[in-house]
Hints:
The structure is a single chain. The chain is an all-alpha fold. It has a domain at 30-45 and 61-141. It contains 8 helices and no strands. The chain has helices spanning 11-15, 20-30, 35-44, 63-78, 84-92, 98-113, 117-134, 136-141. Helix 3 (35-44) packs antiparallel against helix 7. It starts with 10 loop residues before the first helix and ends with a helix. The relative contact order is 0.19.
Amino acid sequence: MSKIQVPNEDLKSWLAELKPFQRSTLEHFMESMEAEAAAERWLSTIGTPNLVGFGGAGVTDPKPFLERFKTEFHKFLCDDNAYSDEKKEITGQMPISKTVLISMISSAIGAHMGTAGTLIAPAVTLFLFTIGKMGINAYCSK
């Protein structure tokens, strides 16, 4: 199976694919941190005290969800056996828009993790931006 092609485009181009509230939050995060740290912050933001954090874990420790997201994201892009149907659909349509790429990856990983793809789409976007800069082979070799 051929690897998914991740475009090497600037951050503004990637963030333009998100909803305005997601984009503005990430732009704020990116003022003081790199893309991966901003994605981690997005996933570990607790929000209001009346809501349970991502993954249903206690609000004091978002790390398990964060690590699981990173593991699933790496499996999606690097493990030939994981998410094979979804990857086949993506590679069969290449080249596809960043919007579709973000949506398909977010939906697949979100479904596997038991969360909505729209909630993890900003993190997926930032990870894809980073991979576009370094190359998928470099990302998968780490």
